[in-house]
Design brief:
It contains 26 helices and 17 strands. It has three domains: 214 residues, Thiamin diphosphate (ThDP)-binding fold, Pyr/PP domains (Rossmann fold), CATH 3.40.50; 155 residues, 3-Layer(aba) Sandwich (Rossmann fold); 130 residues, Rossmann fold, CATH 3.40.50. The strands form three sheets. It has a seven-stranded mixed β-sheet, sandwiched between helices. The chain has a five-stranded parallel β-sheet with strand order 1-2-3-5-4, with helices on both faces. By secondary structure, it is an alpha/beta fold. α22 links the parallel β13 and β14.
Amino acid sequence: MLDHIDSPNDLRQLAPSDLLPLADELRHFIINTLATHPGHLASSLGTVELTLALHYVFNTPDDKLIWDVGHQSYAHKIITGRRDRFDTIRTYGGLSGFPRPSESPYDAFGTGHSSTSISAALGMATASKLQGNTTRQHIAIIGDGALTGGEAFEALNAAGDSKANILVVLNDNGISIDKAVGGLDRYLTRLTASTHYNRLKDEVWARLSGVRPGTRTHNRSRSLIQRLTFTAKTALLGGSNLFESLGIRYFGPIDGHDIAQMVEMLTKLRSLPGPKLLHVITIKGKGLDSAERNPVVYHAPGRYDAITGRQISHQADGQPPRYQDVFGQTIVELAKANNRIVGITPAMPTGCSLNIMMAEMPDRAFDVGIAEPHAVTFAAGLAAQGMVPFCNIYSSFAQRAFDQVIHDVALQQLPVVLCLDRAGIVGDDGPTHHGVFDIAALRPVPNLTIAAPMNEHELRNMMFTAQLPDAGPWVIRYPRGCGVLPDWHNEMSPLAIGRGRQLADGTDVAILSIGHSGNDALEAAKRLMSELQISAAVFDMRFVKPLDEQLLDTIAAANYRAIVTVEDGVKAGGFGSSVLEYFESHHHDRLPRFAILGVGDAFVPHGPVARLKHDCGYDADDIVSTITKLLNAR
């Protein structure tokens, strides 16, 4: 049946009884494809029936579906004309792992980060109203813990006051990427567990459904029933319903895998004006036993056996550890020696390996939900009372907390250690997740120390130095994936803040690097000598801020024929810019040929890290070719 679904129009030709077997077929198609073409598995398995019901009831793409978080949208991609290309998901030149308007008219809004869908849907609904379109529907599907994000609450507050024609579908599976946390999760559980209220609600709406819509009797009945159900919710749930209090009509919870019930409910809600919220209960990983049992691991499990669900590991013995695991082990080691250290993550304990500390020191490690601004200010509050918080946020997600870094940390010079995981090019997740803007964004902020490790030993030494007394606010950025040192567990020692180091001697050119890119710089220097007899000195600057001006003076005095900087971030305003600014200010009279290698003025697509670095022009090959061109230029 799935082979004949090329668009939602085909779907709408089916009888309602055909939807359940189609859901089973669609779910198995996702399981079988992702087994050998890795992607976000558990989230999309949980939304199969919901996806079919939404497209069956609503007139997409004229009606707008906004998926939040976007990684729950794989079933949506398959039934909107992309089935034949689904095996290219998250591959170079293939389908994006997230909704992308340039990819399909059915992708109404690009969503790679969480908690944005309600704001976007409200904006679209307001635009439709201003343009005179009173029939278009605007549906935000928010799930995987995204309702814990502050922007979602801001949007709900505005939506309740707007009277806009918007439907929020809350895909409640009790999981973000890790288990959902916080008071909101307990509140939703209370709503879910109230069988008395749900039975009353069903009876009330059954009565209303027998009255012809639009009549005076219908309008009076609906008004009365709204008041009665609100009173019932208040009595049965022990307090007013949060969503109803904001002016958003609440329906549910309903079984998100009962496709007939969802079609019926969505059909009713389609004709009701104003802001509405449908609470849907789903199982993350539905249909694959191993994913249902362990949705955290199977959020993005890599390759696995499609029948058993068993993961297929390709990690070789003796391979260097992932940077995130070095962080996770090191913070525990430091915390055992320093009882002022605490760890914080916004909903990514497994992704950043803070789960190691949470297991060993549960009272000193905090998952605050998908709430990056809160995470940073929470850390600032801890620091203001003498603690040393390590706040670990993915670089691309930390963009959301820029104001808090300035206002709550740097301005007050509080000793918060902001660890930016996934800094630089991250690979298959693509432009919403590449952590390439952090250096340029944070470099102008006073009082910050900004450092980047070239390897695992450097990461440990930076973490050790950042927790020492009077260290002030720190930023440590490191990449996704493995480091370079299988023997990574060094004896930690303090670094001189703002001091770089020379890694290789050379007389012709100087290569200045920051962070993991120093490994490419060393490789390029070896090739320059062996292949072209060009002698290249390599300097690992370690710190973006403060820059090692003494070392830069030494480099300027050496009269190199060319200087090249290399960074895993944007060139505009980044590390290379800071070096060039210093040379222009202090050594403009003898500045040699100069090139900045990094990410240019464009968003980087998804694909293998090595390929994307080469496309951006800053891998070892690019360093060699750039230096060759500089030296040969007239």
